[in-house]
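Give me structure tokens for this 228-residue protein.
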Amino acid sequence: MSVDLPSLRELTSLSRQWARDERQPLVIIVDDDVSVREALSELIQSAGFQSISFASAHELLEAHVLDSPGCLILDVRMPGASGLDLQHYLIRNGSPKPIIFLTGHGDIPMTVQAMKAGAVDFLTKPFRDQTLLDAISVAIERDMAQMAVASRTKENSDRFATLTHRERQVMREVVRGRLNKQIAFELGIKEITVKLHRGNVMRKMQAASLGELIRVWEALPSELRDWG
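Here you go.
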């Protein structure tokens, strides 16, 4: 299933909304070296980004800041849970924040593992400041897109929950391309009744056209589309 990413206009609107809510993008640094944390924080803030830093994955998880829009900068090798361990933990728990990995001694297998799991970049120290700042911009944009998609999916799921059993049946047949008379025959109801349910579906799902209704349907979680 493919899901359309939000447009630049939608991202801009969402960004302004977050600004009003005081939810500016946040760059989260996790590195056990205090001097690295301080240097990264200074660089990031000089570029106009907000940042917060932690000495370990445990400290980060205790802080409950992952719901903020933004990205993570992780040291690959740290005492306790490594950056790769944290990446896998976040994926398993449904919090796939965009991650930029930093390492002083990375190798090809480690890089491949991180990138396959969705990392934005894998930078080997020393690196150019602008290279890191460019990666941060890409990561934040990706997170904004992911959060916008998640928000839109929740809205559509909430609307779908307002449909009656029969309206859900009609919606499923409509997006399959069935005509009203075909749906009426399939469900054993009158065609005028199908038209009534179809109108209710369009109104409740806030779809202005059949094409829009199909896109909404395809963006619903699979457990809802496979309903009944």
